[in-house]
Design brief:
single chain
């Protein structure tokens, strides 16, 4: 099996994917949201780029990997392959960023302060499902506390 793809080692691809995701999270957390084109970068552009990388890895390397999805032991064997492990990581990066952008849009729509959004987005970046649960709970509480209109 080659050491990498297109002359770049797996650690290099890991770094590239992480840098792309970090750029998206920085835009979500720090940048103003009044520019639609900038908002599209973490919402669609970067998740699409990461998903494209994921697709390449899956198409080129999953067929040759041992393991599968039938048991935890099979999943562990599947992820012993560096390109498959990288694909799994890129999957998380793409989906967590996409969900983070969705959270940001929804939070803006209910006028949730950016100071409240920031820790929710950081949690989504670090531990995706926990960030989603935090957002859903916070949004639910905000709706309950909002004055009747």
């Amino acid at each position: 099996m080659p050491v990498g793809l297109f002359g770049v080692e797996w650690e290099g691809w890991f770094s590239i994917a992480g840098t792309l995701a970090m750029a998206g999270w920085a835009i979500l957390i720090l940048a103003p949201r009044r520019w639609p084109l900038l908002n599209a970068v973490p919402a669609y552009g970067l998740p699409a780029a990461l998903s494209g990388g994921y697709a390449v890895l899956v198409l080129l390397y999953f067929a040759d990997a041992s393991g599968g999805y039938g048991s935890l032991a099979e999943v562990a064997r599947l992820f012993e392959s560096p390109p498959v492990l990288l694909a799994g990581w890129v999957h998380y990066l793409a989906f967590d960023l996409f969900v983070g952008a969705w959270i940001a849009r929804r939070a803006d729509a209910i006028a949730l302060s950016r100071l409240i959004q920031a820790p929710i987005l950081v949690a989504t970046f670090l531990v995706g499902p926990l960030g989603l649960v935090l957002y859903l709970a916070t949004a639910g509480a905000a709706r309950r506390l909002a004055p009747e209109g």
